[in-house]
Automatic annotation (TrEMBL):
Keywords: Cell membrane, Membrane, Transmembrane, Transmembrane helix, Transport. Gene3D superfamilies: MFS general substrate transporter like domains (1.20.1250.20). One of its GO terms (cellular component) is plasma membrane. PROSITE patterns: MFS, SUGAR_TRANSPORT_1. It is found in: Cell membrane. The chain crosses the membrane at residues 25-42, 62-83, 95-112, 161-180, 186-204, 278-299, 311-328, 334-354, 375-395, 401-420. Residues 24-423 form the Major facilitator superfamily (MFS) profile domain. One of its GO terms (molecular function) is transmembrane transporter activity. This is MFS transporter. It is a multi-pass membrane protein. SUPFAM superfamilies: MFS general substrate transporter.
Amino acid sequence: MTSPATTTAPGAAGDGVRLGLRANLAQFSLLVAVNALVGGMLGQERTVLPLLARDVFHLSAYTAALTYIVAFGATKAVTNFFAGTLSDRYGRKPVLVAGWLVALPVPVLLIFGPAWGWIVFANVLLGVNQGLTWSTTVIMKIDLVGPERRGLAMGFNEASGYVALAATAMATGAIAAHWGLRPAPFLLGAAYAALALGLSTLAVRETRGHARAEAARHPAPENPDHHGELTTGQIAMITSFRDRALSAASQAGLVNNLNDALAWGIFPLLFAAHGLSIAAIGVLAALYPAVWGFGQLFTGWWSDRVGRKHLITAGMLVQAAALGLVATGTGFPAWALAQVLLGAGTALVYPTLLAAVGDVAHPAWRARSVGVYRLWRDGGFAVGALLAGALADAYGPTTAVWTVAALTAASGLIVAARMYETHPRT
């Protein structure tokens, strides 16, 4: 008799493929480490790049300074969509390795770029890297663990990425305070990319067989929209609009990353305008993703116990309250509390949304559904940067923060009204 955490699944992948965290612990742990390096690549920019735009390239307009986030978000969103399709067609590992090959020039461009256009191009490449690698590590962990521990798996995946992002943001802030904004902070990114490429090439194993094995024993869905033989266009429509849970998750993901773009691009400039040092800004830039990252170790597991919907709703409303505190605060203590609340709200939402998509999508097209969801979610970076930049230029950064707070609260209410509970136990 098998335990709930480990299932032997015969079928398309051949007999003997085992689903479950315990049965695949070595590969799962390796993928956690690889995703930490994915997060670290993003963390090298969180503290330094907004200040680089202001102090080195002398970009005074918020909209101009945030073009790198627009480039990153738009590229990552589109890459997420294709990552799911490519991983179904060619396998997960080739997509992961390709993502790390694309990452290699990023630190070089950030260090030596003589004009702002070079920095924007570096973020185009970073968006491709993040879309291919983060999407693939998500899909591979879902493949390995099976349905029973999906929330826990997503908690570990997202925690590893965002804890590494936080640690790198704090480290680069400290490095920049002592050795300047370039080149020293970005040497961490160069080391991350080289190490991750080696691990992905030499140690990571293909997991597509696990998804095929799960699909072979997957019960026929009651909803005819959710049968296994669907085109990519049909999957995009179901995930984006037709299924109430998937569409609610997609809009919540977009709004969540819309407010993350605000935190990434506007918060450091807002804090600097109030006289905070680079080191203090680095601490605040790290505090939010640190709470977000560590919190997901609990919230992913919690969603496996109590379901997905209510955690997502609560998380969006907590984020909205945190943004309101940023708008009203004027010093480090208030902003530190706001960053903690923002991280806690995001921790409730982030792994739970991915787990909900994994609950609903059929294993035969789950990778593509994850890609569509992540297209919407990471499109929020581009939308958030454009919206926050335009509002900050026209009315000031505080108005931008209040507007995004209102949108985040509205998104949580949409989840409460539209989403159905997706966890199979619940």
